[in-house]
Amino acid sequence: MDFALTDEQTQIFDLARDFAVTRMAPQAQAWEEEKALPVEVLAELGALGMAAITVRDDFGTGLSRLDATLIFEGLSYGCPSVSAFLSIHNMVAGMIDVFGSPAQRAERLPGLATMECVASYCLTEPGSGSDAAALRMTARRDGDDLVLDGTKSFISGAGFSDLYLVMARTGEPGSKGISAILVDKGTPGLSFGAEERKMGWIAQPTAEVRFDACRVPATNLLGEPGRGFAYAMQGLDGGRLSISACALGAAQATLDKSVRYLKDRSAFGQKLADFQALQFRLADMETALQASRIFLRQAAWKLDTKAPDATKFCAMAKRFVTDAAFDVANQALQLHGGYGYLADFGIEKIVRDLRVHQILEGTNEIMRLITARALLAE
Predict the structure, then answer these.
(1) How would residue 1 be classed by pLDDT, with cut points 50, 70 and 90?
(2) Which helix (H) or strand (E) holds 151?
(3) Given its phi and psi angles, is residue 221 left (phi above 0), alpha (psi -120 to 50 degrees) or beta?
(4) 217 burial type by CB count under 10 A (0-12 exposed, 13-18 middle, 19+ buried)
(5) For the chain, how far is it from start to end, CA to CA, in angstroms?
(6) Strands 163-169 and 119-122
(7) Cα separation of 121 and 98, whole Å?
(8) Which of 55, 117, 42 is nearest to 91 (CA)?
(9) Whole-number average pLDDT of the chain
C-alpha cells in the first residue's frame, strides 16, 4: 500500500498550511474578539480555488475529497473556526454541483467559487437535531413558487451568508417527504434570530434562520422533490471528512506548540522536555494524530472511489478523528499549565473550537449508530 501523497497533493497541503501560518494564525484571536468572519481572507481563499474544491472544473477546482481534507487540515492549523465555516460553504457548493440543474450550476457556482456569494447549510431545527428526518419546516407549492414556513437552528453564517440551502418538508412524513431548496438572502419572509452566545467558533455567527411565508421560485428546488434528505446525507459524508480534517489541523498546531513549550520551559533544574512522563504524553499525542491522519485519508479515498462502505468509513473517521483531536488539544492545554489557560497562547481557543466538532455534522454518538448499523447489515 502506498500512503505517500503525490507531488501535487503535497503542494496543495503546503499552500494551505502556508496561508494558515501567514494570513490566519496571526489574526485568529482578533477575529474571535471582533466576533466577525474575515471577508477579505475568505475572498483570498476563493481566489486560491478553496471555495469550490470538489466542484467540477468547469466552475470549480475539480479536486478530490482527499485533496479537500489536505486543504482543511492545512488551513485549520491557523484557525479552525474560519476553516470550518469554509468547509460548510464548500459542502453547499458541492451539493449544487452534484444535484443542481445545468441552469442552477451556471447561475450559482461562479459566485460560490470566488466567495462573492457565501453559502450556509440549513438542516437542523429546534425540535429535530440528530433525528433530522423528523424536521417540520414546510415548503408548499403555490403556482410557480414555493412558500416556506419554519425555523432552522444552529446555522453557521446565519445573516452573514448570501445563500441558504434549506431542507424542508414538501410531502409525506419521514425522510422521503423532504426536498432541498435554495433561498437567497433578502428574500421577503426570510429573517434571522439573535446571534447565539457559544463556547467556541466565536468568529463565525450562529443563529436561527426563520421563514415566514417566504416565497421563492419553484426553480429554486435543488434536484428532485422528495430527495432532499438523501442529498443532505450524501453531502454530510464529505462534510464529516472536512470537519474532521479541520479538527486534525488545529490539534496538530497545539501539539507543535507543546513541543516548543516543553523545550523552552524549565522546572526542578531541567527542561520539561527531559521528563520521561511528559515525553510519553507527547508520544501518545503524536501517535493519535498520525493514526487519525491515516484513517481520515483512507475514508476520503473510499468516498472518492465510491466504495460501498464509504458512508461507514466517513462516520468512523469523523468519530475517531474529532475525539482524538479534542483529546490532544486538551492535553496540550494541560502541558502548558496555567499558560495554556490564557488566550495569548492560543491553546484554550482551539480546545473550545474543537469541542463542537464532536457534535456537528452528526454527533459522535450518531456516528457510532451509523457504524453499528452498517456492520450488522453486512
Answers:
(1) confident
(2) strand 145-156
(3) beta
(4) exposed
(5) 25
(6) parallel
(7) 15
(8) 55
(9) 97
Question: Hey, what's the cell of 365?
Answer: 454518538
For residue 219 the three cell numbers come to 426553480
Distance CA 272, CA 280 (A): 12
d(CA 290, CA 287): 5
Asked if 65 and 241 touch (Cβ cutoff 8 Å), the reply is yes
The model's pLDDT over 267-300, given as tens digits with 9 standing for 90+, comes to: 999 999 999 999 999 999 999 999 999 999 999 9
CA distance 298 to 202: 31
Nearest to 18 by CA among 74, 87, 85: 74
- Grid-cell match 437552528, residue found: 153
* 361 in catalytic set: yes
Asked whether 362 and 130 are in contact (CB, 8 A), the reply is yes
Question: Could you give the CA distance from residue 119 to residue 100 in angstroms, rounded to a whole number?
Answer: 15
Q: Identify the residue whose cell numbers are 484571536.
A: 29
The helix/strand count (H/E) of the chain reads as 11, 10
Q: Please state, in angstroms and rounded to a whole number, the distance separating the CA atoms of residues 157 and 201.
A: 11
DSSP of 72-112:
HHHHHTT-HHHHHHHHHHHHHHHHHHHHS-HHHHHHHHHHH
Q: By the 8 A CB rule, do 179 and 133 touch? A: no
Distance CA 345, CA 220 (A): 46
Among residues 19, 17, 121, the alpha carbon closest in space to that of 69 is found at 17
What are the grid coordinates assigned to 216, written together?
421563492
Nearest of 197, 208, 97, 216 to residue 147 by alpha carbon: 216
To which H or E segment does residue 138 belong? strand 138-142
**What residues have CB less than 8 Å from 144, skipping those under 6 apart?**
217, 218
The span from the CA of 197 to the CA of 209, in Å, is: 16
Q: Which amino acid is at 40?
A: E
Q: What is the pLDDT of residues 308-317, one digit of tens each?
A: 999 999 999 9
Catalytic-labelled residue, pool 40, 361, 365, 378:
361
In sequence order, the 6+-apart residues with CB closer than 8 A to the CB of 188 are: 214, 215
